Amino acid sequence: MPLARRPAPPVQPAVAPSPRALRARDLLAGERAVCIEHAGERYVLRLTRQNKLLLTK
């Protein structure tokens, strides 16, 4: 007598995790600019007078 098979559960699409959130004020720590090194290059993240962030190489 064959065994009864249960239907397979529905496959859930893989959901990418949300990127980690950092506060600009924590990154800048009271300064107007901070250096970020990536792949041997140095970048500068600045807070402008208009309170916007500017990332330059």
Describe the structure in your own words.
A three-stranded antiparallel beta sheet has the order 1-2-3. It contains one helix and three strands; from the N terminus they run αβββ. Helix content is 9%, strand content 30%. It has a domain of 33 residues: Ribbon (Complement Module, domain 1). It is mainly beta.
List keywords for this structure.
Complement Module, domain 1, single chain, 3-stranded antiparallel β-sheet
How are the elements arranged and paired?
Blueprint: H1 24-28, E1 33-38, E2 41-47, E3 53-56
Antiparallel strand pairs: 1-2, 2-3
Task: Give the gist of this structure.
The protein is mainly beta and 57 residues long. The protein has one helix and three strands, in the order αβββ. Helix content is 9%, strand content 30%.
Number of helices: 1
Low-confidence stretches: none
* SS-derived structural category: mainly beta
For the record, give the distance between the C-alpha atoms at the N and C termini, rounded to a whole number.
Answer: 71 Å
